[in-house]
Amino acid sequence: MTRVYTIGMSVFLVAAVGLLLFLSSIKKTGVEYRTDFFVGLDSNRDDKISFIEWMAYYGGHSHPIEECARIDFYWGDCNKDEVLSWKEYSLVRKVGGEKFGGSSTCRPDISSQEKLSRAYSDALARENVLIEKYKFKANK
Length: 140
Ligand SMILES: [Ca+2]
Ligand SMILES: [Ca+2]
What we know:
This protein has about 140 residues and is mainly α. Helix content is about 55%, strand content about 5%.
């Protein structure tokens, strides 16, 4: 009986240690910090949102860029590599951005109507370049 108890405890301890190792590996990759929306857009699971992944969600929207949250791609992609990292995304969307040191983002200065209009037209110009580059066609 004691032997069965010892084997049972050993199995339990091995399972518990395995679970702890699994949980600590998740924490190291920071997976738990990603929002469901970010993870949902990242269809190839490379932890970045490509233009095509972004537009798979936003490309079907018919409203203008001035009224659409898809502009966050252009205002969030600070290094202009045409993908949103989690850091870029979380800063522009203000979700968990404090983990990266606060408010630094490349969101343009929109402190006046003139600057806002320029920021919108710059974003639209960039979008048109990316649509052409990636041959994006919306599924409407
Ligand atoms: Ca991706
Ligand atoms: Ca980027």
